[in-house]
Amino acid sequence: MWICMVYNETDTSVDIRLCQDFSLILSVSSLIYLLVCFPLGLCYNVLLVVVNLSNKVSMTMPDVYFVNMAIAGLVLNVVAPVELLSSTFTYWYAWEYNNEVYITLLILFNISSLVIMYSTTLLSLDYYIERALPRTYMSSVYNTKHVCGFIWGGAVLTSFSSLLFYVCNHISTKMVECSKMQNKEAADAIMMFIGYVVPAVAVLYAFVLILRIRKESTPLDQDSARLDPSIHRLLLASVCVQFVLWTPYYMTLLVHTVAGAPGHHSNPQYLNTYYFLGCVSKLLAFSSSFAMPLMYRQMNKNFSNKLQRLLRRLHCGGQSCPHERSTVQQVVT
Asked: Start and end of every G-protein coupled receptors family 1 profile domain (predicted)?
């Protein structure tokens, strides 16, 4: 765990007890996550990706975005055990990693967070387009797949500041130039603005448009029924859950950007609380990797049918089952 910050003898017992309480809470929470949430998230994310990719013909625009978020969730599933089993999170740590591993984990974490937040944001905007202009193909599955590719590319480019920090750790010369790039406050400010403020404003704008179009009756309303009505509830739930789980992490970035590095403060209680809340916020962010696929599994009515089709196809040896071929012949005739 982090080193308990104590500066005078009068505060020693209180601060050490507070630090020990924080450490115990964080250790137990990390253990519960690794034993319960991690395997659930891993299984459901893999299931979400495999089921939808095996039924590409029946995929809709929301399915593409949720597959994108599930892939980002799998990246978080890779990062989570490495961090939660380190000395930063638990008493019973399995390893301690160096700065290079830390920066690599930070880059993967930032990329996943950006992909999740922007997939949620663009899902909201595309849902409005689908409701407002149902006869167009601006929010088609084909276009959405390309948009998701741009999301990953943009997330990698946005994490470039962390990549520069990673490269600078391997450079022995020109350390003056590298030290200028190792400005964590600036990197956190960029992540706060691009990863949270922009998606929050865009989601709010999309919801205002969606509420407006739901109040107004248009001649195209009958065509908007091609969207599953459960998608609206799934959209609302996913946006709320994502922002609830990710807001604490971005608030810690805001505090770090405004107040500076925690080492600038001499109050040991502030330092211990700061590190504890930072770890808790990251644990909540990791929780999005299992909350989202579970919600998709429960609220998407078509998922069960797709899963049953996949299981029947596996039972038939990867070929079309007899009842599926008869269904196709009936549709053709």
From this structure: 44-296
